[in-house]
Specification:
CATH class of the largest domain: Mainly Alpha
Number of helices: 9
Largest sheet: 5 strands, antiparallel
Number of strands: 5
Shape: globular
Structural class: alpha+beta
Number of domains: 2
CATH architecture of the largest domain: Orthogonal Bundle
Strand content: 5-15%
CATH topology of the largest domain: Ribosomal Protein S4 Delta 41, Chain A, domain 1
Helix content: 40-55%
C-alpha cells in the first residue's frame, strides 16, 4: 500500500496553507509555515513571493489541499469524488461529508489522536473497535449509530494512559458524542456541511474534475 514518507510540513509550505498535519505543533512557533512560508524546493529560501497561478492551477491546489488534509492518494480521492457525484445533492458538499466519515478522521475528531496521520496509525495498529469488532482500515466509512471504542488490550498502553489525562480538554463535533469515562465515541448522525470547517474550496475541486 502506498504511503507518504516525506516531511508533512513540506505539504503546508507547498500549498501556503496550514493543513494542521502535525497536531499541536501546528499551533506553536515550530510550525514550518510560521518560520518559512516559501514553497519547498531549490533556492526556496530566496523566494519572497509565490508565482502567479492560473485558474486551473488554483483548482488543482484546492484538490491537493483536500488530499493532504485527509491523507488520501489520487486514486482513492477520485473514487470518493465519483461516489459524491453519483449521490443526490451538491457534489462538493457530498465529497466533504464522505471524507469526514472516514474512520481515521472520526478517531481524530473524537480526540483519540492529535492529527489524522496519528489517527491512521492508531487504526492500522488495531487499537480501535468499530461496533464491537476490531478494524484496521482507516478509510472505512462510519454511519449514524456506529460506536467507536478502544480495544481492551490497548488500554494498557502508555499512549492510552496519557490520552485519558488529556481527553478532558477535547471538544467533539455536534454530530458525534464522547463518553470520556470509558473512552467511547458514537456517531449521532451524518455530518452536515455547516458543521464542517475546511481549509479548501470544494467547489474548485468539482470544477477541476468537471473539465
Amino acid at each position: 500500500m502506498a504511503r507518504y514518507i516525506e516531511a508533512y510540513c513540506r505539504l503546508c509550505r507547498r500549498t501556503g496553507t496550514k493543513l494542521m498535519l502535525k497536531g499541536e505543533r501546528c499551533f506553536t512557533q515550530k510550525c514550518a509555515l510560521e518560520r518559512r512560508d516559501a514553497p519547498p524546493g531549490p533556492h526556496a529560501s530566496g523566494r519572497k513571493r509565490r508565482p502567479k497561478v492560473s485558474e486551473r492551477g488554483l483548482q488543482l491546489m484546492e484538490k491537493q489541499k483536500a488530499k493532504y488534509t485527509y491523507g488520501t492518494f489520487e486514486r482513492q480521492f477520485r473514487r470518493f469524488f465519483e461516489e459524491a457525484s453519483r449521490a443526490q445533492g451538491i457534489t462538493g458538499d457530498n465529497l466533504v461529508v464522505l471524507l469526514e466519515r472516514r474512520l481515521d478522521n472520526v478517531v481524530f475528531r473524537l480526540g483519540f489522536a492529535d492529527s489524522r496521520s496519528q489517527a491512521r496509525q492508531v487504526v492500522r495498529h488495531g487499537h480501535i473497535r468499530l461496533n464491537g469488532r476490531r478494524t484496521d482500515v482507516p478509510s472505512c466509512l462510519v454511519k449514524a449509530g456506529d460506536v467507536i471504542e478502544w480495544r481492551k488490550e490497548s488500554k494498557n498502553s502508555e499512549y492510552y494512559k496519557t490520552l485519558v489525562e488529556k481527553i478532558e480538554d477535547k471538544d467533539v463535533p455536534a454530530w458525534m458524542s464522547l463518553e470520556k469515562e470509558n473512552m467511547t465515541g458514537r456517531v449521532l448522525s451524518l455530518p452536515a456541511t455547516g458543521e464542517i470547517k475546511t481549509n479548501f474550496n470544494e467547489k474548485a475541486i468539482v470544477e477541476f474534475y468537471s473539465r
